[in-house]
């Protein structure tokens, strides 16, 4: 079994990673970190290098913490929700962890499309976390 976390280097991404790491340690499961991009014009070599360096730091931190893990950087043209659900299914996912942005009162009426899609399509439980002050 594994814990799947959607990770991007934002406050919300760091909060999700922290919660997923705690779940993986608690359950003694493998942690699968998924960094998903659609690709295209906005994702150039410089952006790819920046994300690769960030994922290297994540890997180092997980090694230091003694967490069994795998880091996947995906640029397959899929929406992040599609990649997370797919990875959870192929990795025998026990739990998906995602970070949520704080929204305006109007924005709260509509959950982010990726978060909503993950909640509706995942075949395992989903833990949604918000970033705290320390993120």
Features of the shown structure:
135 residues, alpha/beta, 5-stranded parallel β-sheet, 5 strands
Structure description:
- With 135 residues, this protein is an alpha/beta fold.
- The protein contains 4 helices and 5 strands; from the N terminus they run βαβαβαβαβ.
- Strands 3-2-1-4-5 form a 5-stranded parallel β-sheet, with helices on both faces.
- Strand 4 (93-100), helix 4 (113-121) and strand 5 (126-130) form a beta-alpha-beta unit.
- The longest helix has 21 residues, at 45-65.
- The two termini are 28 Å apart.
Class derived from helix and strand content: alpha/beta
Widest sheet: strand order?
3-2-1-4-5
Mean pLDDT: 87
Rg (C-alpha, Å): 14 Å
How many H/I helical runs? 4
Major sheet summary line: 5 strands, parallel
Strand fraction: 15-25%
Shape annotation: globular
Give the helices and strands as they follow along the chain: EHEHEHEHE
Q: How widely separated are the two ends? A: 28 Å
Number of strands: 5
> How much helicity do the residues have?
40-55%
Contiguous runs where pLDDT drops below 50 for at least 5 residues: none
Organism: Ornithinimicrobium pekingense
Protein name: Universal stress protein UspA
Family: Belongs to the universal stress protein A family.
Domain UspA: 3-130
């Amino acid at each position: 079994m594994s814990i799947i976390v959607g990770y991007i280097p934002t406050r919300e991404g760091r909060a999700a990673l922290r919660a997923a790491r705690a779940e993986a340690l608690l359950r003694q499961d493998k942690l699968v970190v998924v960094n998903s991009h659609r690709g295209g014009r906005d994702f150039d070599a410089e952006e790819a290098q920046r994300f690769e360096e960030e994922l290297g730091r994540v890997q180092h931190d997980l090694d230091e913490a003694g967490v069994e893990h795998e880091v996947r950087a995906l640029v397959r043209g899929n929406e992040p929700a599609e990649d997370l659900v797919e990875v959870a299914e192929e990795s025998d996912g026990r739990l998906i962890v995602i970070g949520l942005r704080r929204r305006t009162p109007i924005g709260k009426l509509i959950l982010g499309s990726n978060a909503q899609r993950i909640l509706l399509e995942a075949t395992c439980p989903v833990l949604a976390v918000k970033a705290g002050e320390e993120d």
